């Protein structure tokens, strides 16, 4: 059962890693409405497949992978549209709402998890179909016209392969995956240097401000995704809490993150991008220091420290992504964060 649950979460996670790269890049070349339509079809196919073949491990894994591909299509289209808004204040607002939606979804999932524990889990795979009620509204607002340029199929295939290797190597850093990643990187670099019209050029990667900004995203959000598992470990070893009890103590932190994500655009417009980043990092450091200094005080410190930490991470999303998009030309937003 443990191995099965690991596969059900790991394989869709790998698919998500590839989808983020692929959709973000395709969004600069083909109509976003086509990407969204494909995402809707994948969600429907995955939901029905999972429900009909709920007794098959392979069926569930394929269904969750298809659903994941569908979800990411909408997320990528949203980010490309949001970052293409000319008005800095409106752009910051909509980028912040993306992070707020993620934090809000996490909080709702934690609240509803206990309520859904007694429901036939096969029915849970049909829940995404409820979101299709918003598809007609969204469809009218998603551009149906493509940007200039053709799709570089060969380059995207190599790029997607690299994304797959990177995701696999991150989860299991064995030597042959790392070697394959290095070899794939060399092949990709040679290809974009020699191809007549590659989807991305070498100058994109030698853009130092872009590289620094993306490195900041990688470093900070690697920390973000390690915090919750770390809290589970601290809760179990220090206070004897099980994961469900730790999750309840983290719920206020997710609500705080939701609030700071929604207001980060307004804050950035008032005090500037640099000051917002410094303020967010200060909150994260303050939460970390509080956890280290008062860990023996009781499990309440988990909630207090995580409220500070997640407040910083929630508000950090908008200024960091705004920094990345400021380093690339218009029409390259999808590739900038792919």
Automatic annotation (TrEMBL):
Localisation per UniProt entry: Cell membrane
Protein keywords: Antibiotic resistance, Antiport, Cell membrane, Hydrogen ion transport, Ion transport, Membrane, Transmembrane, Transmembrane helix, Transport
Predominant subcellular localization, coarse grouping: membrane
SUPFAM superfamilies per UniProt: MFS general substrate transporter
GO molecular function per UniProt: antiporter activity
A GO cellular-component term linked to this record: plasma membrane
UniProt record, GO biological process: proton transmembrane transport; response to antibiotic
Transmembrane residue ranges: 6-26, 38-63, 69-86, 93-115, 121-139, 151-169, 175-192, 213-231, 251-269, 276-294, 300-321
Topology in the lipid bilayer: Multi-pass membrane protein
InterPro entries: MFS, MFS_dom, MFS_trans_sf
Domain Major facilitator superfamily (MFS) profile: 1-338
Similarity comment: family membership: Belongs to the major facilitator superfamily. TCR/Tet family.
Functional note: Resistance to tetracycline by an active tetracycline efflux. This is an energy-dependent process that decreases the accumulation of the antibiotic in whole cells. This protein functions as a metal-tetracycline/H(+) antiporter.
Name of the protein described by the UniProt record: Tetracycline resistance protein
Organism annotation: Actinomyces bouchesdurhonensis
């Amino acid at each position: 059962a443990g191995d099965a649950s690991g596969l059900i979460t790991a394989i869709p996670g790998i698919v998500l890693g590839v989808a983020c790269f692929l959709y973000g890049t395709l969004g600069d070349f083909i109509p976003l409405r086509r990407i969204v339509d494909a995402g809707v079809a994948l969600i429907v196919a995955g939901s029905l497949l999972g429900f009909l073949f709920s007794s098959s491990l392979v069926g569930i894994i394929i269904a969750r992978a298809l659903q994941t591909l569908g979800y990411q299509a909408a997320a990528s289209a949203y980010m490309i549209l949001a970052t293409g808004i000319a008005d800095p204040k409106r752009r910051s607002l909509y980028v912040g709402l993306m992070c707020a939606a993620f934090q809000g979804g996490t909080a709702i999932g934690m609240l509803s998890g206990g309520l859904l524990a007694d429901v036939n889990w096969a029915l849970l795979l049909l829940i995404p179909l409820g979101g299709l009620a918003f598809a007609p509204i969204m469809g009218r607002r998603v551009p149906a016209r493509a940007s200039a340029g053709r799709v570089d199929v060969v380059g995207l295939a190599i790029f997607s392969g690299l994304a797959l290797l990177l995701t696999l190597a991150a989860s299991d850093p064995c030597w042959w995956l790392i070697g394959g990643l290095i070899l794939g990187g060399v092949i990709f670099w040679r290809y974009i240097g020699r191809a007549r019209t590659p989807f991305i050029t070498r100058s994109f990667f030698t853009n130092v401000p872009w590289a620094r900004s993306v490195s900041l995203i990688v470093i900070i959000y690697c920390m973000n995704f390690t915090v919750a598992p770390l809290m589970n470990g601290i809760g179990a070893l220090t206070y004897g809490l099980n994961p469900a009890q730790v999750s309840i103590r983290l719920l206020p932190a997710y609500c705080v993150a939701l609030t700071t994500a929604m207001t980060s655009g307004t804050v950035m417009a008032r005090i500037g991008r640099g000051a917002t980043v410094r303020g967010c990092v200060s909150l994260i450091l303050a939460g970390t220091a509080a956890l280290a200094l008062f860990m023996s005080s009781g499990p309440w410190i988990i909630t207090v420290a995580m409220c500070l930490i997640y407040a910083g991470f929630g508000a950090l999303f908008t200024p960091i992504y705004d920094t990345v998009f400021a380093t690339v030309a218009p029409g390259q937003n999808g590739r900038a964060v792919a």
